[in-house]
Write a structure and sequence with these properties.
This protein is an alpha+beta fold. It contains 6 helices and 14 strands. The strands form 5 sheets. The chain has a 4-stranded antiparallel beta sheet with strand order 6-5-8-11. A 3-stranded mixed beta sheet has the order 7-3-12. It has a 3-stranded antiparallel beta sheet with strand order 4-9-10. Helix 1 packs parallel to helix 4 and helix 3 crosses helix 5. The chain is elongated, with a radius of gyration of 26 Å. The relative contact order is 0.10.
């Protein structure tokens, strides 16, 4: 037992308690009252101290991270914070143990494949967590947005919200080989790295998606990444999986490009290869160190791809066949690399 103090005003008794000195969780507050005749009585009250922090990380800057309750749809707002230029901020939830949604809006998202910051206008990125009252770190990326969409699908099918978050997180973690919600992706466009760990895989996957959207932008004849970018891709992938619980395309479009299992597998793997071979890759990791992860992405037989056929990953660069000329021969041509 820890004495908290003595109320001095008999007509309006009150005691201020600084909860930061106590551990998180449930406590019992004992209040003893004594009347003018000396009669005494003790009352017990159950109280809860919540000193936990929810640490938000992202590839965004200048954005607002807002925390909501979540039961399959966005509920009551219970906190917010402004993301730093490093893409992080902290929120004190001050709420009971329950499913929570983090939603990022405003500011910009960083595309590693082009070193461009694209505006969040018209877009939001989300992430879900089963809040337990303990300190927790949560990433908010296009991949966590996919988890949110899949969890919404599961809730629509009758799954309880907390269970839907756990199941969706497990399925997408299994798909990509890491937990996207609790792991911060490495900025593989910045500092040199060591061995290929889960954080680097996460970074290369997002960089590969970024590179794929840049190729799609060019194919759609758009001038820059302000429209055809990873944010639009995240929305379209979310719509795809929320429609039937699969990443099977289901008429999802990225401009004039159909989103299919082939895009999600080979397209993203090719994007990773393109990024890894570019001058934007500052990870220091040789391309050969990444091949196993690219192949596992391209040739995945995960159930989310609905049993569609797999196309083997082609990790070879363009091949130019030599042409032999006779002396004094003249030759002129354009060579296109595909």
């Amino acid at each position: 037992d820890v004495p908290l103090g003595l109320a001095q005003d008999a007509h309006n008794p009150s005691i201020m308690i600084d909860t930061l000195g106590y551990g998180y969780g449930e406590h019992t507050l004992k209040v003893t009252a004594k009347d003018w005749q000396g009669n005494q009585r003790t009352y017990d009250y159950a109280i809860n101290f919540d000193n936990a922090e929810l640490k938000v990380s992202s590839l965004n800057s200048g954005s607002t991270a807002t925390l909501y309750t979540w039961n399959g749809t966005k509920g009551e707002q219970i906190g917010s914070c402004q993301l730093s230029t490093a893409g992080s901020c902290d929120i004190n939830p001050l709420t009971a143990k329950q499913p929570l949604l983090v939603e990022i809006s405003g500011g910009s998202y960083f595309e590693m494949a082009t070193s461009q910051s694209v505006g969040m206008i018209g877009h939001k990125l989300t992430s879900l967590v089963n809040y337990t009252g303990q300190d927790v770190s949560i990433a908010v990326t296009p991949i966590t947005h996919l988890i949110t969409s899949y969890a919404r699908y599961l809730v629509d099918q009758g799954t309880e919200p907390a269970e839907a978050i756990s199941e969706a997180t497990n399925v997408i973690s299994e798909l990509y080989g890491f937990n996207p919600s609790t792991l911060m992706p490495a900025r593989v466009d910045e500092a040199a790295r060591g061995a290929l760990n889960e954080s680097e895989k996460y970074g290369f996957l997002l960089a590969g998606m970024s590179a794929w959207t840049e190729e799609a932008r060019i194919a759609n004849g758009a001038g820059n990444q302000s429209f055809y970018n990873s944010l639009l891709l995240a929305q379209r992938m979310g719509q795809d999986i929320e429609s039937d619980g699969l990443l099977d395309g289901n008429e999802a479009m990225f401009g004039s490009t159909s989103l299919t299992p082939s895009v999600y597998r080979n397209g993203f793997a090719d994007g990773m290869l393109s990024f890894a071979q570019s001058d934007k890759n500052a990870s220091g990791l040789p391309v050969n160190n990444l091949l196993a992860y690219m192949i596992s992405t391209a040739e995945s037989t995960h159930a989310l791809y609905a049993g569609t056929s797999v196309t083997p990953f082609d990790n070879e660069g363009p091949t130019i066949e030599p042409i032999e000329f006779e002396e004094n021969d003249a030759f002129s041509a354009e060579v296109g690399l595909v």
